[in-house]
Amino acid sequence: MIRYxxxxxxxxxxxxxxxxxxxxxxxxxxxxxxxxxITGADQTEKYLPYLKGKRIxxxxxxxxxxxxxxxxxxxxxxGINIVKVFGPEHGFRGNASNGAVxxxxxxxxxxxxxxxxxxxxxxxxxxxxxxxxxxxxxIQDVGCRYYTNINTLEYVMEACAENGKQLLILDRxxxxxxxxxxxxxxxxxxxSAIGIHYTPxxxxxxxxxxxxxxxxxGYLKNPCKIKIxxxxxxxxxxxxxxxxxxxxxxxxxxxxxxxxxLCMFEGTAINEGRGTYTPFTILGAPALKGKYAFSxxxxxxxxxxxxxxxxxxxxxxxxxxTYAIDRLVKSRQISLSWLIELYNAYPDKANFFTPGRAxxxxxxxxxxxGTDQLRKQIIAGVSEADIRKSWEPGLQKxxxxxxxxxxxx
Length: 409
Hints:
Helix content is 30%, strand content 13%. Helix 5 (149-162) crosses helix 6. The protein folds into two domains: 37-229, Rossmann fold; 253-401, Alpha-Beta Complex (Aspartate Aminotransferase, domain 1). It has helices at residues 2-25, 48-51, 71-77, 126-129, 149-162, 207-216, 253-262, 326-331, 337-345, 364-369, 373-380, 384-403; strands at residues 55-60, 65-66, 69-70, 81-87, 105-106, 113-116, 134-138, 166-170, 226-229, 282-285, 294-296, 315-319, 355-357, 362-363. Strand 8, helix 6 (207-216) and strand 9 (226-229) form a beta-alpha-beta unit. It has twelve helices and 14 strands. The strands form four sheets. It has a seven-stranded mixed beta sheet, sandwiched between helices. A three-stranded antiparallel beta sheet has the order 10-12-11, with no helix packed on it. The protein is an alpha/beta fold.
């Protein structure tokens, strides 16, 4: 209890310090006392009593922090009995490359078993949950259908429902919550490891809201019993700079904000910066030599991208590392212009979109987008305005559904 009170007062002191520093920096200006966003995890007073005396399973990675300290370390130091940690794609420490199989291990620092949900099984098994009373989910998401943390959330909820376990969600802001955009996946044939939900490409929900959506829209055979610790002082239009990189290739705020637009290129002949230390801020391909002055060379980077597209070849294209993100925020849209531009500039258009399921005429791009319509529209030269118009019926229907599950304005 003493340690809990100590941490609580440290949090108050930190918040006061931020406000005090603002006053010192601008002594002659009117200081705006905007409420400070406080994540669910940082509101320990709201959930510590609920964890006491229970055997806890924690779904976590490097973004799971209380203050600046790992949630595993913090909760353990506060006397919480964490018996198991479940890690998503990229692993518990967040140092595995995209798509890489992650094995079970024991955390060297705490001795706690770490179960990979991106290895032999994506869903916790009955045996893995047998010695757990409560599951806690605390992972930062970035608001895209093709970012696999929401897949992990569904699998964990399904396992909890099947095994009579409750799920406590420590909610975090969605840095891309301002945008609900892109085509809505409506056909099962486009389901894959990077998309299993009938949402637009960007859904505009936090993890807590998405959990309510999964329960309410019948994604689970039986609803999961959930308890959500909401983010304090937050709404969907508020900017949020992530305190920790959510995955190895989202290593800057610029990359996080560009991710919804640039991740589309993973299903094309264009390299989106993987194999560099500025992923998701640059675009290019060797075939664009002579059409763009900007160039870079993707290489193998352990823990980020071992086999990037166009490895060891000079790529030419676009440098978006200084692109004004405010333009995307104000438009409340993902960008289509870069996709259209680079397709039109690419000399070998027949090989711009990379293969996926050839027997079904589904490209890797289609699996990421959730439909084959966009690919066919790009090839046919349909204008951006008409492409966006074709998305509207699905978007309007989804937005009406989404409204039922929002926890924040």
